[in-house]
Amino acid sequence: MSHPENAAEFLKDAQKSKWHDETLWFVRDKRDKVSKRIPEWEQLRELASGIKDNVLANLANYLEEFERKATKNGIIVHWAADSEEHNRLVLEILQKHNCTAVVKSKSILTEECHLNPYLEKQGIEVVDTDLGERIVQFLNQPPSHIVLPAIHLKKKEISELFHEKLQTEKGNEDPAYLTQAARVHLREKFFGAKVAITGVNFGIAETGEFVVCTNEGNADMGVHLADVHIACMGIEKILPRRKDLGVFLRLLARSATGQPITNYNSHFRSPSPGKEIHIILVDNGRTAQLAREKFRNSLKCIRCGACMNTCPIYRRSGGFSYNSTVPGPIGSILSPGLDLKKHSSLPFASTLCGSCTDVCPVKINIHEQLYEWRQEVTKTQGDFAKGLSMKLANGIFKSPLAYKISGSLMRNVLKSLPNSLIYHPLNVWGKNRNLPDAPKESFQQWYQKNRS
Amino acid sequence: MNSREKILSAIRSLSLEPKTLPDIPNFSNSGNLVERFTQSISDNKGEVVTKSEFDAWFSAAGFSKVISLSSQFAELATLPLPEDPHDLESLEVAILDGQFGVAENGAIWLEDTQLGLRALPFATEHLVIVLDRNLLENTMHQGYEKIATAHSGFGLFLAGPSKTADIEQSLVIGAQGARSLRVVLV
Amino acid sequence: MKANSPSVALFIPCYVDQFYPQVGIATLELLEKLGCTVTYPSGQTCCGQPLANAGYARDTVGTATHFIETFSDYDYVVCPSGSCTLHVKEHFPAIAGLEKKQEALENKIYELIEFITDVLKIERLEGKFPHRVSYHSSCHGQRGLHLSSGSELNQPPFNKARKLLENLKGLDWVELTRTDECCGFGGTFAVTEEALSIQMGKDRLADHLSHKTEILTGGDMSCIMHLQGIATRSKQELKFLHLAEILNQALS
To answer: Which chains touch A (3 or more CB pairs under 8 A)?
Structure first.
């Protein structure tokens, strides 16, 4: 289904969609307030953007430096050209350690690679340990938001789910009670797992370390109890210097949820004695996006989700309406690069209001890229009729006479047609909106009569 | 060609225009560091306490499983640091020394030397960090300047207890990790 | 115009020309009251934005060429729409042979309010408009042309329209809850994403209505056409006026 169809479906539950809008607006509002407490906020965004520009311009060198340093520190570095290779590498490490159950903290990259179904097919149990992710995993759903995976669910639904899966009391919807039940369940998994998988927020070329940020502490619970830590990182997540983290950690959580920092910001540089750390550097379409000049800087994204929280479309249509691993404005400029046909409606799921661009901590010109993707979509995916009517319109507007004729035709048609016809269901504008009253003359006609 | 070479050569073939790596100014905010740090920890749902407040809480609770790696509170330990982190499963309290704190957000820097076991601050029910009030930095920029590139296999900016808001955005403290954080400023 | 009265060409967007001639008239009269010599170049059509935003920018070369030729002889081009102004400034296709004229046009086209505050340098207007007015900030005017500060950015608050309105005697300025959320018009979005467009419009209207607004105003009739269309359909008691209409009335 296309975005408009999914959005219309989401809006049918008026109460829930209103709640969704208001809840995410609240998160955005928190972001606004906390960012305004930092006088140098706009400078930090500029810096972050500049650092990422430099990263993208020197990506190969930084990746090599990262690999060299990480290897020296005792981290095992792997490279994956695509999702299949990434998944295979994970599986090989698991098999080497005779591991049949893993705990995994939030990683949008592993969602992008569809790692869970791949491993499950191989008989491996994967437990997502972020609470929101565990909830959607129980439901066999993907996350609907990259930071707030279960934001599309109400506590009633989660209560019913936990009653079934974790034997919680029927009807107990208290978030503290439900969280406690998940804590007991997940701690048992942490203490039993031999291998833990995490994503990566930042990889540092200078030191060969990588940083993982969580509030729940689930990434750390997993990796420090396991013998083997597998970190999956998109190649664009590199930062040149450790001190760059000062800029990015100041921006990340404030942008994401309006908190000054995530409670756990872990820097992994070398494994504990007797343990292993693997890092898989994944391309999966990133070098192709890097080659697209107009869309290159979408790779600056640090996955904070601020563009989703601010987007008036996302808030009212929900993450699933995008049918893409990364939903929302940023997803709508990343996903067409992966599959233009599948995601052709996403660049149009926007009014180009530009709010996404202004909240983006790395200053990605998201709304301008949406505009540019529209130009690409119509080249290859445009349906003939739409193309024709647009060409016709160009014909009208470049010729003053044709414009005048069609304009007065339009006004006269509006005046003479009965309302039932104007507001025919096929007239989409008029389904839920009136048209303006047609004036007796255009401005142009008035001007000629009165001023020339 | 293996994937490593494939990826690197794909990037190099683009011969992108160079972009200068910007310098980071030494941003710092005015204000009393202790006050700001205390407020930040409280915003993160932790608590900054005095030594006597800590003593009162600790003795009232009557914990039986306590690990203390802080020299100032060594006598409170009831257990030695185990070799296997799995032995931390029922640990009630861990007491650690923090290297320094960051006033703007309450983040406290910890490295392998302070942690003993990397799992310790996560696996414990309650976490206590002892921090010298003279070791507070203004922002993260000063924090990273302080640690520079010094080597520790693991380093952590810890700013509060384990928390989640994944159920209807209701904040719950004590998700998977420590249920509370107390920072004893000395 | 204060000194030697440079010539101002009026660019009236196609939908304003066809549906809202009174907005064009108000713009013209207002600029004249402020001392400008105003011409409406005949033969003007549309800026091509509807096509470009629908993904057919490549088909707007003819429209843009015509636009550049029509307006190249004037000192300033003034338009009562932030959205159309932004399109001319930022989204015209590059046209071979017209580079210089195009660049000149981009630098001399102004949205009406910014022309008054930034070019005519008028800080306050003396007039009367005893009504409770709320302002719908058009996204292209705000985030594109920076006619007001955005709630997203850490910048000192400002609002060029408010500056002109708030001195008018009797005008009661309404503070909204969400000061600059999009109304959901979005050009073709209004029909391709109809359900969302309507919901966004309803939500915006609810914000205005909850603050007991009498007149909803703004600098873009496209947003207002959409909001008014929804309000009229649901029989809501709310008046809609373009900023030019308010200022022109207030100054008479």
So the answer is: B, C
Picking from A53, A263, A266, the nearest residue to B160 by CB comes out as: A263
What are the DSSP E strand ranges found in chain B? 47-49, 66-68, 93-97, 100-102, 108-111, 126-131, 136-137, 154-158, 163-164, 172-173, 180-185
Q: Which amino acid appears at position A352 of this protein?
A: L
B184: left (phi over 0), alpha (psi -120 to 50) or beta: beta
Closest CA to B17 of A49, A290, A283, A302: A290
d(CA A326, CA A202): 18
Distance of alpha carbon C162 from the chain centroid = 14
d(CA C90, CA C107): 11
Q: Which residues pair with C132 in a beta bridge?
A: C172
3-state secondary structure of A410: helix
Residue C175: CB atoms within 10 A of its CB come to: 8
The structure tokens listed for A275 are: 């343990």
B125-155 exposure pattern, b = at least 16 Cβ within 10 A, e = fewer: bbbbbbbeeebbbbbbbbbbeebeeeebbbb
Please report where in the chains the tokens 């296999």 appear, as a residue.
B153
Nearest Cα of chain B lies from the Cα of A127 at a distance, in angstroms, of 13
For B14-46, write each residue's pLDDT tens digit.
989 999 999 999 898 778 999 999 999 999 999
CA distance, residue B36 to nearest chain A CA (Å): 12
Inter-chain residue contact A358 with C143, CB threshold 8 Å: yes
β-pairing verdict for B100-102 and B136-137 = parallel
Cβ contacts (< 8 Å) between A436 and chain C: which residues?
19-20, 225, 228-229
Backbone angles phi, psi at C201, to 5 degrees: -65, -45
* Alpha carbons B31 and B176: distance in angstroms, whole number: 34
Q: How far A111 CA sits from the closest chain C CA (Å)?
A: 27
Q: What percent of chain C is modeled with pLDDT above 70?
A: 98
* Contact B73/A at CB under 8 A: no
Q: Which domains does chain A have, with CATH numbers?
A: 38-284 (3.40.50.10420), 298-381 (no CATH), 387-450 (no CATH)
C46-81 b/e (C-beta count within 10 Å ≥ 16 → b): bbbbbbbbbbbbebbbbbbbbbbebbbebebbbbbb
How far is B125 from B179, CA to CA, in rounded Å? 5
- Quick: pLDDT tens for C161-205: 999 999 999 999 999 999 999 999 998 899 889 999 999 999 999
- Give the integer Cα–Cα distance in Å for B183 and B105: 14
Query: Tell me, what's the ipTM?
Result: 0.97
The CA-CA-CA angle for residues A289, A294, A298, to 5°, reads 55
Distance CA C193, CA A378 (A): 17
Closest residue to A428, CB basis, from C51, C186, C194: C194
